[in-house]
Specification:
It is built from 10 helices and 7 strands. The protein has about 260 residues and is mainly alpha-helical. It has one domain. The protein has a 3-stranded parallel beta sheet with strand order 3-4-7, sandwiched between helices. Strands 1-2 form a two-stranded antiparallel sheet. The protein has a two-stranded antiparallel sheet with strand order 5-6. The longest helix is centred in the middle third of the chain and has 20 residues. The termini are far apart.
Length: about 260
């Protein structure tokens, strides 16, 4: 598929040419899959996410054979199932004696912010807060818009592939020194960070699966759709609440990140 020429130039500007793109795509043969995988720095990230959302909305109104694809970031807030809560709670309560001896004074001097219990025991669902302040409000808003569209479209019967992707060493992550250090030290807290090639292959396989199964099984609640087949890299089952270990992971990974 070759992009249309807009104003005589090949290709199109997603921020300015949504109507032309929508008209062109609506006329294309075959089933359409619109993937909202865009990213840009700063406020432009919200703008391009909204542009893809509007493009998707127009195409869903024009055709009945459109599927939507999304990748949810693991560094967000999710409701998680009981088995993840139970495993994280077990790890917290059975952590080693040295870990307890180190953790207590750290929690005390930090006012309870460091190395906190991951969940309220036996909660269903549990609430996993892995938002990373360094990624900024624009990133959080852009990803939340995508989750909202995925939820609404799925409710309306659209085939939707929306899977939680693993923590990944993407260029947008490793260029941020604090995030790069945190990812380098994450394994010390039971979190696995994937290489981009591994994440790409895995998430592409899940996309193909979803497209061939009508978006996968449907659950009673939207949070269960998001949690199904989530590749969270251990964030949901870690010993400590993710944000409470982020700073320590960055300190421990600082040397590796510089290397």
């Amino acid at each position: 598929m070759v992009a249309p020429a807009v104003d005589g130039d090949p290709g199109a500007d997603l921020l300015a040419d949504v109507p032309a793109l929508a008209d062109w795509l609506a006329a294309q043969p075959g089933t359409l899959v619109i993937g909202n995988y865009v990213y840009a720095d700063g406020a432009t990230n919200v703008r391009v996410s909204v542009a893809v959302d509007e493009l998707s909305r127009r195409l869903l109104a024009a055709r009945d054979d459109v599927a939507l694809g999304f990748l949810a970031t693991p560094t967000d807030v999710f409701a998680v199932p009981r088995d993840a809560v139970a495993e994280a709670t077990r790890r917290y309560e059975t952590r080693s004696r040295p870990a307890k001896l180190v953790g207590r004074p750290l929690r005390a001097v930090s006012g309870g912010r460091l190395l906190r219990r991951p969940y309220v025991a036996d909660s269903e669902p549990g609430l996993n807060d892995a938002l990373v302040p360094q990624q900024g409000p624009n990133y959080a808003l852009a990803k939340r818009l995508q989750r909202w569209r995925a939820t609404v479209a799925r409710h309306e019967g659209v085939t939707v592939s929306m899977n939680v992707a693993p923590p990944t060493r993407t260029r947008s992550v490793v260029k941020n020194r604090a995030l790069a250090a945190a990812y380098a030290g994450a394994h010390r807290f039971g979190v696995e960070v994937f290489d981009p090639a591994t994440s790409n292959t895995l998430m592409a396989a899940l996309l193909v699966h979803d497209l061939h199964t009508g978006g996968g099984p449907r659950h009673d609640h939207p949070w269960q759709d998001e949690a199904y087949a989530a590749v969270h890299g251990g964030l949901w089952r870690a010993t400590f609440a993710p944000r409470s270990a982020l700073g320590l992971a960055a300190l421990l990974g600082l040397g590796a990140a510089r290397g």
